[in-house]
Amino acid sequence: MIRPDLILWIGLPAIVTIALLLISYQVQRLENELDRLERAAIAQQEEIHVLNAEWSFLNRPERLARLAERHLQLAPVAPRQMISFTDEPPFQGLEE
Amino acid sequence: MSELSVRAWRDAAGEMSRNGGIEKLSARDARRPLETARTRLLVAGAIFALCFAILGGRLVQLSLLGDGTDMARTAQHGSALLTLQRADILDRNGALLATNLPSQSLYVDPTLVLDAVEAARKIHGVLPELSRQEITDKASATGSFRWIRRNLTPEQYYAVNRLGLPGFGFRREERRVYPHGSLFVHTLGFAGIDNSGLAGLEAARDSDLKSLAASHGGAMITSLDSRVQHIVNGELAAAMAEFDAKGAAGIVLDVHSGEVLALSSLPDFNPYDLKSSKADQRFNRATLGVYELGSTFKAFTTAMALEYGVVDLGDRYDATEPLKVARFVIRDDHPQNRWLDIPEIFIHSSNIGAAQMARDVGAERQKEFLGRLGMLSQLPLELAENGRPLAPRRWREINVMTIGYGHGIAVTPLHLINGFATLVNGGIMRPPTLLRRDGAVAGKRVMTRETSDAMRALMRMVVEDGTGKKAEAAGYLVGGKTGTAEKAVRGGYKKNALITTFVGAFPMDAPRYAVLVMLDEPHGNKATHGFAAAGWNAAPVVSRIVSRIAPMLGVMALLPSDEDEEDSERLLVRADGEGRRFASF
């Protein structure tokens, strides 16, 4: 005769074991995923790092000056072109 | 489990008692195995219970208390950050000046190489700069590790990898990269192939850069400004070519914080190609070289005399004829042959007047004053190359007098500009730095605000009416002092080998930046009518530098039409910039 509590005591460990197995596999999968993502993140950071260096290399003042001279019709700012807000005469357009 | 076995035992016992006919067993005999079984059961049960208790305890420990190695491993995942061996170096505006880039290095394990000659032939095919013999030697050497080539380019890495040679492998390394090339080579210095700093800031702050990188602490922010550095470098190079000079140095310094915005020493060198650089190129003229900087020192003499109350601006000295001291004769380069007052001595750069002023101040006070200005000791700049000034061991009267006009004492250009920053910023000495400073910087007061104000007026006069006229940059009120000195050589001075300097600050009504230009052995040309003095070659460079950097640094120009006052009257204004008050002498 199989008593119901026997079923319980055999069934429960079995369920727990299977659940544990499944969770363990899931954790392993997630760990692998995490590792992959972390490697990808570091690779991205490295790429950003390299691009930063390249950006700085392309922004050398010497190169910018050369390019500006070739492509822009601009001259360096002359002292006369600069004025501070405090030196500006008060705006009078709205006075009646 | 335990219940199951109990029942089995009971059944067995019952069977035994039923089969009494074959083998007679007394009730006592039948009960004995039962008792034994029960005892064993109890012991087994206890052991199992103990095991489960341990497992349960471990479970609680892992899940609730959260220590143990597994938890530690999981916690590690939190920070997936790129870790490099050296931190980046940035300029004051965030532009990248130095960084580490990953690269692959090729090595060989000779024990695994099948055919050294064949391998050498193939590698020579993709890395032609390596000789076949060299690779063969390394691939057949004893031991199990030899570098073939460090820091391959990505294409070279791909090409060698595609050969698929056994015994040849790659190791990931990092290479220090300077995107600006040689622009900052005398300030940043450089790092070696194993990523340790060997010169400049890289060497002086080596451990800081390494620990910053290890702790993900971000980059090292310097006080340098790449735009200003580019301008200073370019103008110095142009001046070197124009005046056929051997070398040049230039510094731009914030007078209120001691931050170095640009520091340049020419000729310079390529940080990636040390082998072909000469010692002269690696020598930092701005911070390591000590020079007798001549007349520029008259500014310190004048400030000292005013500060100690030895003279007033109206006092006069006799400069009618050369001054004889012991067996020496002190002459003027621009002789006026008359009595000169203090501003005239300064403007016409009279050696005779400055020497007498220094003599009146005296050795003790001169030494103390120059010491407080930092002229007698090494400066604490964050560089491996910091020159130590040369000063006489015993200050006799003749030393006092020659030092009064800048001979007999040798300092670095950095010492000089830092002293001038103190003269014009209200009299507060701050040590120069290569690192960005945020907020106010405490300093030591060396002279009174009044002395500093007088010095600003005198320096402005030099540019308006004196030896430094060519340093004027329209609108920016440049002021400063020229200095032309013959180079000291063993046992005397070398004729026609000059060190010319212009050091000054702008704008003189409320100084913000000090600028120094020094040329090493410049020569006269047609445009300068053959003259090689500082007013002809160093001063115009300062003018060009100031007019280019001032708009960038947000310094407002003060053009003649802006004010009613005469140019010459815009001399003296309070250093805090509030309410321009003018005074003239």
List keywords for this structure.
heterodimer; A: 96 residues; mainly alpha; 2 helices; B: 585 residues; alpha+beta; Penicillin-binding protein 2a (Domain 2); Beta-lactamase; 5-stranded mixed beta sheet; 5-stranded antiparallel beta sheet; 16 strands; elongated
Count of beta strands of chain A: 0
What is the CA–CA distance across the termini of chain B?
112 Å
CATH architecture of the largest domain in chain B: 3-Layer(aba) Sandwich
* Poorly predicted regions of chain B: 562-585
User: Which stretches of chain A are low in confidence, meaning pLDDT under 50 for 5 or more residues running?
Assistant: none
For the sheet with most strands of chain B, the description reads: 5 strands, mixed
| Residue-averaged pLDDT of chain A | 85
CATH superfamily of the largest domain in chain B: DD-peptidase/beta-lactamase superfamily
Total of DSSP H or I helical runs spanning 4+ residues of chain A: 2
Beta content of chain B comes to 15-25%
Helix content of chain B: 25-40%
Judging from the principal axes of the Cα atoms, what is the shape of chain A? Answer: elongated
CATH class of the largest domain in chain B: Alpha Beta
Radius of gyration of chain A: 36 Å
Helical amount of chain A:
55-70%
The gross shape of chain B turns out to be elongated
